[in-house]
Amino acid sequence: MNISTFTQWLLIAIIGTLIWLAVFSLSYHTFSINVPVNFTNLKSTLAVSDDDIGVDVILRAKQLIYYKIRNGNALAATVDLAHIKKIGNYSVKPKIEVNAAGVWVVGHSPEILDLKITSSFKKEVPVVVDIVGIPKVGYAVDAVKIKPQKVLIVGPQSVVSNQSAVYLTVDVNERSTSYTNTGVPRAIKANGSFYQNISTLPRNIDIDVSVIKGETFKTVGVVPQFKGNLPPGYWIKEVVFSESAITIKSSAHRLVDIGSVSTTPIDLNNKTKDFTDQVGLETLSDVQVVGSSLINVTVKIGVSEYNRQLIIAPQAVNIPPALKLTRIAPATATITVTGPPNILAELGIADIDLKVDVNTATSGITNFVIAETMFTLPVEIELLSFIPESLNFSFSKK
User: Fold this and answer.
1) How many angstroms separate the CA atoms of 384 and 347, rounded?
2) What are the φ/ψ torsions at residue 41 (nearest 5 degrees)?
3) Model pTM score
4) Cis peptide before 330, with omega less than 30 degrees from 0?
5) Counting Cβ atoms within 10 Å, is residue 40 exposed (0-12), middle (13-18) or buried (19+)?
6) Which end of the chain is more exposed for a tag (fewer CB within 10 A), N or C?
7) Ranges assigned E (strand) in 184-293
8) Backbone angles phi, psi at 23, to 5 degrees
9) CA gap 348, 94 in Å, rounded
10) Are 265 and 225 in contact (CB under 8 A)?
11) Over the stretch 270-290, which tens digit does the pLDDT of each residue have?
C-alpha cells in the first residue's frame, strides 16, 4: 500500500511532537510551593482577622529553576482589597505572579480565599534594625540611620496589642560604599516568620547606611535584659539563648571595652510558665552584629512559696599585683533566693556577697563564669538562680 506524501509528513509531524513532549516531560517537573498571601490597599480602619493565609501554587519548571524560585522572591500571591469598605466576610481570588523565565503556573489551591475583615487597631512601636550580610573584606558598617524611628502598626487588636517592636532588614552583604534606600518594617513572630495581617504607617522607612574601611571581629556573650516583673512567688530558673555567643565587628579600638551584648527587653509581666520569644540585640551605631540581629530566647520560670529577688554588685578578689581593675560588665547580678519569710523580709544586699577569684586574669578583658560557690549567703537562705551566667572583668597594667 502506497502512503501519500501528505500522510508521510503528517506522521513525521506527529512523531516529532511526541518526541518533543517526551523530552519536555523529562526536562520539566511539576511542583507545588506554598506562598503566603500579601494583602494590599485595605482601608486603614480595617484589618484581616486571620493570619498565616497561603496558597499552594502548582508550577511546571526545570529542577534548577524550581530551587531558585523556592529560595528566592520570584513567586508572589497578592489580593487587592481596595473594594472592601466595611467589616464582614468576603471571598477573594489571589493573583499569582512569577518573575522568572521558563516557569508555567498550572494552578493554585484554594482558588478562592474566605476572609474575615474586622476593625483595625493602631499602636506606636519602635523600629529595630536587623542588619544581615557582611560587607566586603576590609570594610565595616559605621552607622545605620533610619527615619522615622517609630511607626504605627495596624491590624487586629488581638495581635497588635502584643507587639513591642517591628523589624527592618538592612542588607549590607558585600557592600564597600555607603548607600541610601527604603525598606518595609515587619512584625515578626517567635518562629521568625512575618505577621501577614499587620501593616505599618508609614509603610516605607528611609535607610542611610554608612560603610567605612577597616574592621575587627570579636566573639562576646549575650546578656538578657528584662522589663516588668513576674507575679509573686515566681522566679527565673534559667535563660537559654539559641546562640550563647555572637560575633560583633567594629574598629579594634571600639571593641576593646565590649565584653557582651544585651538583648532588647524581655517582657516578664504575667508570665507564670516557661516561654520562648524572639528579641533583638542592642549595639551602638558603630558596632555591628555579624549575621542576624535577632535571637531566640527561652525563659524557664520556677515557682516557690517564699522567695526574693535582689540586685547585688559583684566583687573581684585575688587581683594579680601587676593589674588594676577598671571595669566589671555587667556591673550587677540579679539573684533569686528563698528561705523563711521572716528572714527574707529583713534580707538586704549587704547580707549577700558575690566574690569572683580573678587570679588568672590578664591585661584587657577576661571573662569569668559565675558559680554558686562564689556566693556567700546567710544561714537558712538558699540561692535559687542568678543572672548573668558570666562577668567580664577589665584590667589595665599598673
Assistant:
1) 15
2) 60, 25
3) 0.48
4) yes
5) exposed
6) N
7) 199-201, 205-213, 216-223, 226-227, 234-241, 245-250, 260-263, 266-267, 275-282, 288-289
8) -65, -40
9) 63
10) yes
11) 888 899 999 988 877 778 888
